Amino acid sequence: MLHIKSLDEGLNIFKALGSDVRIEIIKILLENDGMNMNELASRLNITNGALTSHIKKLEEAGIVTISSESAGHGNQKKCSVYIDKVLIDFDSEEDSKNVYQTDIKVGHFSDYSIYPTCGLASATALIGEVDDTRYFAHPDRYNADILWFTKGYVEYVIPNFIPASQKIDQITISAELCSEAPGSNSVWPSDIHFYINETFIGMWTSPGDFGNVKGIFTPDWLDLNWNQYGLLKLLVINKKGTFIDGLQISDVTIKDFDLDYKSTIKFKMAVPEDAEHVGGLTIFGKNFGNYNQDINVRINYSPIVEGMSPKQTD
């Protein structure tokens, strides 16, 4: 998913999508899970030169990626759609001057309770043995860029370094996530629950554990039968409620927590054993998956009004 935080920021995307031919290219690539340039030009009944111009605009906007594949007469360029959805903030109340942003590495969890199948890995190797929960306490877990488990939870302390005398108005968390199936299975639903300071704020059902295609950034040494990539999810909690990718998932608001510059903020991702779909959780960080990012956190803040708590002010 691509999150566009302002209309100006999305200008290249809008220009790239402002063509009937490029819209048709995206539709064809989605229908066929990618296609090489010659096939695509033939399907559209246009020249390779004209197609190259359109593909370049889509690639520059981050909508399409190009890779080389072996064929009978040498390598051919294959085009694939890179993003699964675009979220646009038309009416953003965010003040860019009042935002604290930080990244949390996947292995920097502060608490956990998990069950096999499970494991962790850095960019270069597995950490310990797979399906041995003891390695979630190993010092090397701080180097982990991917982790997975069947049920249970991992919890992170979100660094809170907003300026003094400020209250927290919104927390935005983005992470690449999917289920955890034995091997891999693209149809393996899992109810992933989210918590702030032990309060349940909502749930998202992951559709599966994706191992059918190698993740763009996933190292070659990782077995193709294992989790290769996830879906980039955007979790937002503000004064209006809690949202995933712009869709409201609960009525829990940021005011329910009374957070300010002194507050400890704990964020938990869990698959409870009593969930309807106990399909596990995989968290992808840098060097794995399709997005090459850690768990990204943005905190919007504003001054505390003297004599009032964060709950009492807008």
Task: Describe the protein.
With 314 residues, the chain is mainly β. The chain is built from four helices and 19 strands. The longest helix is centred in the N-terminal third of the chain and has 13 residues, at 20-32.
Instruction: Give helix % range.
Output: 10-25%
Distance between the termini: 30 Å
Rg for CA atoms: 21 Å
Number of helices: 4
Number of strands: 19
Secondary-structure element pattern, one letter each: EHHEHHEEEEEEEEEEEEEEEEE
Shape descriptor reads globular
Output the structural class: mainly beta
* Uncertain stretches: none
Overall mean confidence score, pLDDT: 90
Strand coverage percent: 35-45%
Largest β-sheet summary? 9 strands, antiparallel
How would you summarize this macromolecular structure in one to three sentences?
This protein has 314 residues and is mainly beta. Helix content is 13%, strand content 36%. The two termini are 30 Å apart.
What does the secondary structure layout of this molecule look like, with pairings?
Blueprint: E1 2-4, H1 11-17, H2 20-32, E2 35-36, H3 37-44, H4 48-60, E3 64-71, E4 74-81, E5 86-88, E6 99-104, E7 111-115, E8 119-121, E9 146-149, E10 151-158, E11 166-178, E12 190-196, E13 199-206, E14 231-238, E15 241-244, E16 247-250, E17 265-271, E18 281-284, E19 295-303
Parallel strand pairs: 1-5
Antiparallel strand pairs: 2-4, 3-4, 6-19, 7-10, 8-9, 9-18, 10-17, 11-14, 11-18, 11-19, 12-13, 12-17, 14-15, 15-16
Helix pairs in contact: 1-4, 3-4
